[in-house]
Amino acid sequence: YKPGVKDPFWQECAMSICNAMILAITDKCIAEGTEEKITMYAVANMLSELGSKEIIIDPEEPPKNALDLYFENLPSDSVAKMQYATSNFSKGQARGGIFTQTMNGLSIFTFDEIAKMTAKNSVDLKRVGFGKTIKGKVTPRKRIEIVFPDGSKESIKSDITGRFALDFKKVIKVGDTIQFNEKGNKKKKTSISIMKIDEKTGDTEFKVVEENEGIQVITVDYFDKPVAIFMITPDFDSSNHVIASIFVRQLYFILAKGASLARGGKCHREVVFCLDEFGNMPSIEGMANIITVCLGRNVRFNLVIQAYAQLKNKYGEDADTIDGNCGNTIYILTNDQETAEKVSKKLGNQTINLSSRSGKGLSTDKNKTESLDQRPLLTANELMNFKEG
């Protein structure tokens, strides 16, 4: 993702092809029961194998691209097929250029270390902002009311598959009973009793006290400890830095989605992103929009840069939006004149009192005048010459 490109056509087409392949692989693996094969390595491999292969169907007609044929054979209502169609209008050299652009972006996932690292997920991203969750299954599109031990109630609507996941704030302990009712049908209810809570993992054991076939409780997670995730990227090799940017974007997506479904529309605990090398990280998709709305989701970003030129270089016109939505600017030191001038303007001006005298040198008859003027609170040169302490 590069927001500052002059011609976004190539990037947009590459993203469409990538999205189409992700959707196609997801649909295929879910249908076959092999969800563990849904990886970015599989996406890169699909493009590598099919994108460069030509198949002759009719000797009298030109050969067809294997990737095109794959999507042509998908059902007409396939979301993957429709996504692929947005890039299928390009032919000839333009088509090859789009494939090359897409493969350039996916090539990092073909490295053994990255392929293995992104093949599995051992981190529950949602736990960063939500530690307490109840998951279950009921009638599709039905609203379920959950009654907690203190008598308080929360409700949530199940999706088209009947699954629901409620993030809650209430305190529960061993021996407590939680009741689940289908809203509008009090006879349809299930009750569970909490048997054991593992404080280290959040795994919670429970037994069903009162059971209804239409309301099934799958898991209860109760993790009340804060979570810290450290991303360590080598400064001598920037080829893997894009993984950090993707991780930040994916984590925010999970948190924002959970916040939109939670009561109050925000994460249950504050999440702080400390991006120490934000100016050197590859661009994060939608960062201008993220920084605009994140506080409403109970998410904060601490963005550390060496100069504003880094922000402009990475995000183009969005740089001003990102900077403008940062409520506080903490300045340490810079050697960049433009950055110093911008910080000086943010500090504003101070009023100073100017006085002057006029008259002959030995004369006692002198005129004294005073006037008010303004000057920067700290000039750019003063900011660039900060002394330690």
UniProtKB/TrEMBL annotation:
<feature type="compositionally biased region" description="Basic and acidic residues">
    <location>
        <begin position="363"/>
        <end position="373"/>
    </location>
</feature>
<dbReference type="InterPro" id="IPR027417">
    <property type="entry name" value="P-loop_NTPase"/>
</dbReference>
<keyword id="KW-0472">Membrane</keyword>
<feature type="domain" description="TraD/TraG TraM recognition site">
    <location>
        <begin position="271"/>
        <end position="387"/>
    </location>
</feature>
<protein>
    <submittedName>
        <fullName>ATPase</fullName>
    </submittedName>
</protein>
<dbReference type="Pfam" id="PF12696">
    <property type="entry name" value="TraG-D_C"/>
</dbReference>
<keyword id="KW-1133">Transmembrane helix</keyword>
<keyword id="KW-1003">Cell membrane</keyword>
<dbReference type="GO" id="GO:0005886">
    <property type="term" value="C:plasma membrane"/>
</dbReference>
<keyword id="KW-0812">Transmembrane</keyword>
<dbReference type="InterPro" id="IPR032689">
    <property type="entry name" value="TraG-D_C"/>
</dbReference>
<feature type="region of interest" description="Disordered">
    <location>
        <begin position="354"/>
        <end position="374"/>
    </location>
</feature>
<dbReference type="InterPro" id="IPR051539">
    <property type="entry name" value="T4SS-coupling_protein"/>
</dbReference>
